[in-house]
Amino acid sequence: MIRNEDEIRFWLKRVLTEENLDDFSVNILGNSEKGDGYVGDIVFVRLTSAIAHSPKEYNLVLKCSKQSETLRKTTPIKEAFTNEIYVYNTVLPVFTQFQRKHGIENPFDSVPKYYGRFTDENTEVLVFENLKSAGYSLWNKKNPLTRKHINMVVEEYGKFHAISFAMQDQQPEKFQELHSDLQDVFKQFMTLSAFENMFSKGFDEVCDLLKGDLEDETLIIWKNFRNQLNYIFSEMCQQPDVKKVILHGDCWNNNFMYKHAADNEILPVKVAMLDWQISKYSSPILDLSYFLFACISKEDIEDLDEILRLYHKSLSSHLQRMGADSKKLYPLDTFLKDWKKFDSDEVIDFADAVENGGDVGAVFSYDVKDKTSYKNRARHVVKYVVENGLI
Question: Measured between alpha carbons, how far is 40 from 317 in angstroms, rounded to an integer?
């Protein structure tokens, strides 16, 4: 849905109260492409203050909830936006304060600048700095990430997860209160819609594509793994012995933006993590495995043990800086045991499909046209997962 200027001005006047902008102009630069956001739309805006002697300019991104009544009734859109607002308003500021208390010089801060939110009965809007104007860009989602990109994200996840472990150890009551207000939005999607069927279809498609490429036994093991989906999404992470942290939750390629070196367009120097709508309290393995298996190359998956150790080294180092001990809170052997235990262009517009009588789960079950690329990306993941006993 294309948002109009009056609507955007109304939202921004209420969000940017601390910026002292009595009068300003709004220039809508563009909208997200069809299908880019399943439960929300993105609007790119340039705001200019009307103060003649010292005009201010803001390049902003507005993340706006879909307003389709049918979609809002059949999916937890409001809950997803409420969850993300809670992360930006409460969780991340508390994490920042905790790190500052310990004098951390290189804290976890890999998120876009957040200005605030507007909400009413049928609308949720979050306002961020436009990272593109700060030199960040998305990686081409058709290509696996380079090893340097992988390492950077893994190290940031180590720092991010370390804050939860340290707070649980040093401020258990405060941390309990902090994570208890997070909702399991993904579980709500699974309950309300035929998402499990979508995942099952994906397993079948991969098996059909890889017939003749991988041994039949490997494909049978992979296909049977779909029978464990409900256990993985609901029961496994609820076991009392599972180590838990506050998660990012949505770890695919398009939810990371990278700033690259001025003299090298593929050398990352900073990453920002986007989209915290399905953030929840669960095993750190969920963030790590989702990210790695969604973004890794065939070459780097062969070196996955080293990548896992890099994650744990980052987590341990950040814990130490916060006065905590990883050997007590999350030792390497426990992490590796947990890892063993747990472990596109062709999109459909979410709102349009549901308004036209479609099922929410079916929206994600579209056919992949570029079968060759899909096959090449899937082959090394299936082979690694089965050969290393992760299923």
Answer: 37
- pLDDT at residue 31 in the model: 82
End-to-end Cα spacing for the chain = 41
Q: What is the pLDDT of residue 21?
A: 80
Phi-psi region of 281 (alpha: psi -120 to 50; beta: other; left: phi over 0): beta
Q: For the chain, what are the domain ranges? A: 135-387
Whole-number pLDDT of residue 175: 98
pLDDT recorded at residue 217: 83
Tokens 């399905």 belong to which residue? Answer: 278
- Smallest CA-to-CA distance from 214 within 34, 390, 385, 338 is with 385
Rounded mean pLDDT for each run of 10 residues along the chain, 391 residues in total: 81 88 86 64 91 80 90 88 97 98 96 96 95 94 92 98 98 97 87 64 77 80 69 63 92 94 91 97 93 89 94 98 95 92 47 42 48 63 68 59
pLDDT value of position 215 = 80
Q: Are 159 and 149 in contact (CB under 8 A)?
A: no
Q: In 3-state terms, what secondary structure has residue 53? A: coil
How are strands ordered across the β-sheet holding 123-129? 24-31, 40-49, 57-65, 123-129, 114-120
Look at residue 16 and give its three-state secondary structure.
Answer: coil
Beta carbons of 41 and 61 less than 8 angstroms apart: no
Contacting residues for 217 by C-beta, under 8 A, at least 6 apart: none
Locus of tokens 């209420």:
14
Q: In angstroms, rounded to a whole number, what is the distance separating the alpha carbons of residues 71 and 77?
A: 8
Question: Can you name the residues that pair with 62 across neighbouring β-strands?
Answer: 43, 127
**Rounded to an integer, what distance in angstroms lies between the CA atom of residue 243 and that of residue 165?**
9
**CA dist list (Å): 321 to 103, 105, 244, 248, 317:** 8, 9, 20, 22, 6
How many Cα atoms sit within 13 Å of 233 on the Cβ side? 18
Report d(CA 391, CA 19) in Å as an integer: 52
Per-residue model confidence (pLDDT) at position 371: 56
| pLDDT reported for residue 329 | 96
The C-alpha atoms of residue 134 and residue 61 are separated, in whole angstroms, by 12
